[in-house]
Specification:
The chain is an alpha/beta fold and 393 residues long. It has 16 helices and ten strands. The strands form two sheets. An eight-stranded parallel β-sheet has the order 8-6-4-3-2-1-10-9. Strands 5-7 form a two-stranded antiparallel sheet. The longest helix has 27 residues, at 303-329. The radius of gyration is 23 Å and the shape is globular. The model has no long low-confidence stretch (mean pLDDT 97). The structure holds 5-thio-alpha-D-glucopyranose and manganese (II) ion (2 copies). 5-thio-alpha-D-glucopyranose binds at residues 19, 57, 93, 138, 140, 184, 220, 248, 258, 294.
Length: 393
């Protein structure tokens, strides 16, 4: 059999949530089109497809309200499946949105009993995640929002959310767990408006936490795109701040509901630029954490289509990584980018402020007319990217 260079392997660090490939195709307008799958079978199938790991919410594995004995049995079977199929659980999270008690939010709900229950549920779910080996814990506050802002002061919501994250950081420290938190933003859906709507909001919020170093972000392509923003810019800001703890890869068209489509199936150019950034093919520091696909197969698919979908996410990522390496090795691309450097001025701009450096900078002659007239060749650069993407280079 010939070697397939885009066949996913464990070394690629690809992961899927149980809820992603396990999505039965239910939507607000229609019932499930696929059977609910056993989590152990998902582990086996993902392993066969070449994934490295599987992520979960507490309720993806343990049905809400299960007895302690039932829970322990499920966990034992799941651990065995992980071992049998060489799979890991790098990330875990809490379902704080499905149960009706969370209709007004979880950590930000007005009823203190709901907030207390959200903390109880999360502490139990953190124990489960740690037991399964997770080192990242995601917080996606899908219900932390409003339809009517008359119900609470949004400033109070921020304070409540901060209290919950501060409290849970202390819980993790108290237990001595090796666990970091990753906050995931979304602008709306299922609530009319969700607090801390984008990754940028999350980064600003994290700077106000007591254990700031334990908390980073989990940006999702679909969620940043729903807000009309550039996923690549937002991920880059998180990387530059040392805060990209996790990532949710999928596909989305701007202006729609949260589509969670197969990675790279929409806006191929943005997907390419994102992979280029994550892989650091332009010479920047790469992201080395899990590459998680938070997406699901079209509702039209049967079981076979689900695994086509999963393989598609991983194969597209690998193809884009290969394309990005080719693009950044292309001498014409390198020449266009290198033309922006200036050996005389770069060292001066790189130096910290001093009275002497400021004087040197201010004395530097700059021919503004020539610079303003010069074409930057970005049209050619973008065309090179498109031709590279289309396999013409
Ligand atoms: C839910 C949501 C995702 C989050 C998951 C983690 S659950 O499917 O749509 O974006 O990442 O809670
Ligand atoms: Mn989504
Ligand atoms: Mn997500």
């Amino acid at each position: 059999m010939s070697h397939d260079p885009i066949q996913p392997t464990r070394d690629d660090r690809f992961t899927f949530g149980l809820w992603t490939v396990g999505n039965p195709g239910r939507d607000p307008f229609g019932a499930a089109t696929r059977a609910v799958q056993d989590p152990c079978r998902i582990v086996q199938k993902l392993s066969e497809c070449g994934a490295w790991g599987v992520n979960l919410h507490d309720e993806d594995l343990i049905p809400f309200g299960s007895s302690a004995a039932k829970r322990d049995g499920i966990v034992a079977d799941f651990k065995k499946a992980l071992d049998d199929h060489g799979m890991v659980v790098p990330m875990a999270t809490t379902n704080l949105f499905s149960q009706p008690i969370f209709k007004d939010g979880a950590f930000t709900a007005n009823d203190p009993k709901v907030r207390a229950f959200a903390l109880q549920k999360t502490m139990t779910a953190i124990e489960l995640g740690v037991e399964l080996g997770a080192s990242t814990y995601v917080f996606w506050g899908g219900r932390e929002g409003t339809e009517t802002d008359a119900c609470r002061d949004p400033q109070e919501a921020t304070r409540r959310f901060r209290h919950a994250i501060d409290y849970l950081c202390e819980f993790v420290k108290d237990r001595g767990y090796d666990l970091r938190f990753a906050l995931e933003a979304k602008p709306n859906e299922p609530r009319g408006d969700i607090y801390l709507a984008t990754t940028g909001h999350m980064l600003a919020f994290i700077a106000t936490l007591k254990n700031e170093e334990m908390v980073g972000v989990n940006p999702e392509v679909a969620h940043e795109s729903m807000a009309g923003l550039s996923m690549t810019h937002n991920v880059a800001q998180a990387m530059e701040a040392g805060k990209l703890f996790h990532i949710d890869l999928n596909g989305q068209r701007i202006g729609r509901y949260d589509q969670d489509l197969r990675f790279g199936s929409e806006d191929l150019k943005q997907a390419f630029l994102l992979v280029r950034l994550l892989e650091g093919t332009a010479g920047t520091t790469p992201y080395t954490g899990p590459l998680h696909f938070d997406a699901h197969a079209y509702r039209t698919e049967d079981d076979a289509g689900v695994w086509d979908f999963a393989r598609g996410c991983m194969r597209t990522y690998k193809l884009l990584a290969e394309r990005a390496r080719g693009f950044d090795a292309d001498s014409e691309v390198r020449d266009i980018i290198a033309a922006m450097t200036d050996a005389a001025i770069d060292p001066l701009l790189g130096a910290p402020y001093s009275a002497a450096s400021a004087e040197a900078l201010r004395a530097m002659p700059i021919d503004i007319d020539t610079i303003a007239k010069r074409g930057l060749r970005y049209e050619r650069l973008d065309q090179l990217m498109i031709e590279n993407l289309m396999g013409a280079r």
